[in-house]
Amino acid sequence: TEAAYDYERVLNPWMVWAYMTIMLSIFIFDMINKEYNGNISDRFRFATMSHRSYLLYSLIMYTFVMLCIDLLTYFLINGIFDSNISLSSLFLFRIFCNIMGFMLAVFARSPFSLYRLGLMVTVVLLSLHAVMPLAANNVQSVYEYLHPVESLMTGSVNILLPVLLLVIIFWKGCEAVVES
């Protein structure tokens, strides 16, 4: 029945994992927040690597490590719960979460504001997920490409991922303008 379908969809282990991943990905980047807004940037005046390059390198390393953990999680959840998703959508979801967490950490003024932003983003996404069944069909088709968890569950590419990549490119490019 439809009620049983909704119950299974809400308690899907990948959906629970996805919302936890969003929140924890933002929280993990508090180190970036502390380094970006702290006194560590003074150390990079005489280094061969710029401060923003170092932060982007940290983002890449974090993403690689978390992708390895996600690969292990993929096999565990599929083995235990027999709930399958696309491996490519899982990787794109992780990249989205890490870039979003990174950019929020860069723009947050303090670790506390980053934690508030992380909770706020997670609650807003959960709320949107809860009210989306009430929306019209034409809104639901757009929602699938905008909401990161829905993109993970359906295997579609999130439209916001290229936008976040452009924001990072612009952020990194601003450093070159400042240096010249």
Question: What are the key terms here?
Answer:
180 residues, mainly alpha
What would you say this structure looks like, in words?
The chain is mainly α. Helices cover 79% and strands 0% of the residues. The longest helix has 31 residues, at 51-81.
Structure described in brief:
The chain is mainly alpha-helical. Helices cover about 80% and strands about 0% of the residues. The protein is globular, with a radius of gyration of 18 Å.
Shape: globular
- DSSP summary, beta strand count: 0
- The pLDDT mean sits at 84
Helicity, as a percent range: over 70%
Distance between the termini: 64 Å
Characterize the biggest β-sheet.
none
**Model regions low in confidence, pLDDT < 50 over at least 5 residues:** none
Strand content: under 5%
The number of helices is 9
- Work out the radius of gyration: 18 Å
Order of helices and strands: HHHHHHHHH
Structural class: mainly alpha
Can you lay out the helices and strands and say which pair or pack?
Elements: H1 2-10, H2 13-28, H3 30-37, H4 51-81, H5 87-107, H6 111-131, H7 137-146, H8 148-154, H9 160-179
Helix pairs in contact: 2-5, 2-6, 3-5, 4-5, 5-8, 5-9, 7-8
